[in-house]
Design goal:
The complex is a heterodimer. By secondary structure, chain A is mostly helical. Chain A is built from 6 helices and no strands. Classes of the chains: A mainly alpha, B alpha+beta.
Chain lengths: 167, 266
C-alpha cells in the first residue's frame, strides 16, 4: 500500500468514525449536524479515476449509513456529490484548469469556500430529499439543506484552515 | 457491438452512478417504516399508472369480446325485464330474446328497412318485434336463413299499438316522414289527461311487442279538428339513425293467440 492509498484509507476510516461517533451526536439547536465526513469527497485527489471515485464514494456513504443506521441515505447523497464534483471543479477553478494540478492547499480561500459549499449543498440536498421523500416537505428539505450546508461548510473550511493549508 | 462498448465506456460514470443510486434508494426504502410506506405508496401509484396505461391496449383488444359479453348480458336482462313487466298477469309469457347486429339501416326514405345479421337459422321469422335498449325499432318482414329484413319504425306502412304510460289510453303510432325522431300518435281520445313530456310505451294489444316497452315522450299535442281525438307528436328515445345491437323478440304464444284473433297490422 503506497502512501497515497494509505492516506485515502486513513481519511476514509477516520472520517467515518469521527462522523458516526462524535459529530452525529453534536446536535446544534437540536436538529443541525455538521457533516465533517464530507471532507473525504472534498479532499479526494482530483487526478484519480472518476469512476473509481464514484464507487468509492458510494461505499463511503454506505459506511456512514451503517454507523448511523440511515439505510442508504448517505450512500445516495455521497454518490451524487461525487458524481457532480467534476462539474463543480470546472465551474469554480475554471474550465481550462487541469484537475490534476489542483492542490487544495494552494487555492484561494474564496475558491475553496465556494467549492466546499457547492459539494456540501449537493450532498445535503440529496440527503434531505431522500430523507423526506415527499414534495410536501420541500420547505423542510430547503431549510435543512441551507442551514446544515452553511454549518458544514463553516466546519469544513475551519478544519482545512487549521490543518490542510498549513501543510 | 464495438459502438455499444464505446457508448458504455463513454457514459460509464453516469451508468455507475445510476446503478449505485438505485441501490441506495433500495437500501433507503428498506431502512424505516416511513420510507417503506412511502415507497410502497409510490410503487403502487406508479404500478397502477403503468397497468392503466398498458391496460388501454388490452381494453381495445378486448372490445369485441366485451361487446359480445355485454350483448349476451343484455339479452338475459331483457328477458327478465319482459317477464317482470307482466307481474300482474297470472300466466306471464316467457318471451324469447335474440341479439342481432344491424348491417344496414336506411332512414332517409319514406319506407325504410333494416337488415340484421341473424335469420331463420337463429329462429327469426316474420312478424317478430325488434327492440333496442332505448325502445322499439321495427318488425321483421322477410327472412332468409342468415339474414332478416326489418320494417323500420321509420316506415310509413308500419303502425304500432302504443299507449300513454300514466293513463293507459291507447293509440296508433305512425311515422309520417321527415324528422326521423318524430312520430305521430293518433286515435287517443280527448278524454285522456295528457301533458308534454309524458312517456309513451307499447300497448301490448298485439302479439308482436310485449306491453310496456318505452317508445318516447310527448313533445307536442293538439285536438284534431271535428274529431274527439288528439294528434300527439312523439319524440323517440331511440335514435333511429344510430343503431348497433338490437334484440329480436319472440312471443312463444303468438301462433296460438293469432289463431283466434284477427291479425292486426302492428
Amino acid at each position: 500500500m503506497n502512501n497515497r492509498t494509505f492516506n485515502i484509507v486513513a481519511l476514509f476510516v477516520g472520517l467515518v468514525l469521527a462522523q458516526g461517533l462524535i459529530f452525529d451526536k453534536l446536535l446544534i439547536a437540536q436538529q443541525y449536524v455538521p457533516y465533517i465526513a464530507l471532507l473525504f469527497i472534498i479532499l479526494y485527489p482530483t487526478y484519480l479515476n472518476q469512476t473509481i471515485f464514484i464507487a468509492v464514494s458510494f461505499f463511503y456513504g454506505l459506511s456512514l449509513d451503517m454507523i448511523g443506521l440511515s439505510g442508504g441515505l448517505q450512500a445516495g447523497a455521497c454518490l451524487s456529490a461525487a458524481f457532480v464534483r467534476p462539474m463543480i471543479l470546472r465551474s469554480v477553478f475554471g474550465i481550462s484548469a487541469d484537475y490534476s494540478a489542483i492542490k487544495f492547499a494552494k487555492v484561494s480561500f474564496a475558491q475553496w469556500f465556494v467549492y466546499c459549499m457547492l459539494v456540501v449543498m449537493m450532498h445535503h440536498l440529496v440527503l434531505f430529499t431522500l430523507s423526506a421523500f415527499s414534495w410536501d416537505r420541500w420547505l423542510w428539505v430547503l431549510q435543512q439543506t441551507v442551514v446544515n450546508g452553511f454549518l458544514t461548510t463553516a466546519v469544513v473550511s475551519l478544519f482545512v484552515f487549521l490543518f490542510v493549508s498549513k501543510k | 457491438m464495438q459502438q455499444l462498448i464505446n457508448a458504455i465506456l463513454k457514459f460509464r460514470n453516469a451508468l455507475v452512478f445510476s446503478v449505485l443510486f438505485a441501490v441506495s434508494l433500495l437500501l433507503t426504502s428498506q431502512s424505516s417504516s416511513y420510507h417503506r410506506d412511502l415507497f410502497s405508496k409510490w410503487s403502487t401509484g406508479l404500478g397502477s399508472w403503468m397497468h392503466e396505461s398498458t391496460g388501454i391496449l388490452g381494453y381495445y383488444m378486448n372490445l369485441a369480446q366485451d361487446n359480445q359479453r355485454l350483448t349476451e348480458e343484455n339479452e338475459l336482462l331483457l328477458k327478465e325485464l319482459l317477464l317482470q313487466k307482466q307481474t300482474d298477469d297470472s300466466r306471464p309469457i316467457a318471451y324469447g330474446v335474440g341479439a342481432a347486429r344491424v348491417l344496414r339501416n336506411s332512414f332517409l326514405l319514406d319506407y325504410n328497412y333494416l337488415t340484421l345479421n341473424i335469420g331463420e337459422n337463429q329462429g327469426v321469422y316474420p312478424e317478430m318485434g325488434v327492440v333496442s335498449a332505448q325502445g322499439i325499432v321495427g318488425v321483421v318482414r322477410h327472412t332468409t336463413p342468415r339474414y332478416a329484413q326489418v320494417m323500420s319504425l321509420l316506415n310509413k306502412d308500419l303502425q304500432v299499438n302504443a299507449k300513454l304510460k300514466k293513463s293507459h289510453h291507447f293509440g296508433s303510432l305512425k311515422w309520417e316522414g321527415g324528422n326521423p325522431s318524430a312520430l305521430k300518435l293518433n286515435d287517443v281520445p280527448n278524454t285522456a289527461s295528457i301533458a308534454i313530456g309524458d312517456t309513451i310505451t307499447t300497448g301490448g294489444m298485439s302479439t308482436i311487442f310485449p306491453n310496456g316497452i318505452p317508445i318516447g315522450t310527448v313533445s307536442d299535442f293538439s285536438q284534431k279538428p271535428l274529431t274527439n281525438f288528439y294528434e300527439i307528436e312523439v319524440t323517440l328515445f331511440q335514435d333511429m339513425t344510430n343503431l348497433g345491437v338490437v334484440y329480436v323478440i319472440e312471443n312463444p304464444d303468438r301462433n296460438e293467440m293469432d289463431s283466434f284473433q284477427n291479425p292486426t297490422d302492428e
